[in-house]
Amino acid sequence: MIDIIRKVASGQMDFIYLLIYLGATAYVVFCTLPLHEYAHALAADKLGDDTPRRMGRLTISPMAHISPLGAVMIFLCGFGYAKPVPVRMKNFKNPKRDMALVALAGPLCNILQAFIYLFLYSLINSIGLVNPAIAYVALFFFFAADVNIGLAVFNLLPIPPLDGSRLATALLPAKYYYKIMQYERQITIGLFILIITGVLTAPLSVLSDLLMNLIYGITQLPF
């Protein structure tokens, strides 16, 4: 976001691009993030844990899922989060496997949406229309895909309270996982510091770009 503002200020990018980026980001915050969390809730519900349903999280309503701080981070950094969906592992038939599936559901939902948006972007570009309005619509899809990929990559970090930390339950022995979770608060604070200071920006951007290029390449194949 900051990089885009600098490009606009220096004349390297049209101001309309900034507006489209903000619109796409707002769309992601109010429409995509709820789908991300709904995917977690639905997966948990299907696997035998009704906690998300009882807590009112089995819905796509933005008000049930949005975290104000996480939303602000998305606008400023391109990476952020929503309110974690409450899940009780003991309700699963296979706790480790099912927790991993629930954790993966959110990022996979983001990646699926990125595929859809990049496909639409590629479709519009393949048609070759020169109408500016159409071009702006294509750009909206591109930015929406970009933010979705950023969310997927960020949330897969194995750091509490992100989805990647839940995946750790399937990979780490219980005694090590619970030892790490004893310091969840401190680790979360450390995560915010790394984001604010920009330490994570470069590696996350590299990973996001790699995934973006991969998905874009796949969506280009039909054209």
List the helices and strands and how they pair.
Elements (H helix, E strand, L loop, with lengths): L1 H8 L5 H32 L4 H4 L7 H4 L2 H10 L17 H33 L4 H24 L7 H9 L2 H8 L2 H13 L4 H20 L3
Structural notes for this entry:
This protein is mainly alpha-helical and 223 residues long. Helix content is 74%, strand content 0%. It has eleven helices and no strands.
Figure out the total of helices: 11
First-to-last CA distance: 31 Å
Indicate the overall shape. globular
Largest sheet composition: none
- Structure classification: mainly alpha
| Average predicted confidence as pLDDT | 84
* Total strands: 0
CA gyration radius, whole angstroms: 18 Å
Strand content: under 5%
> Helices and strands, in N-to-C order?
HHHHHHHHHHH
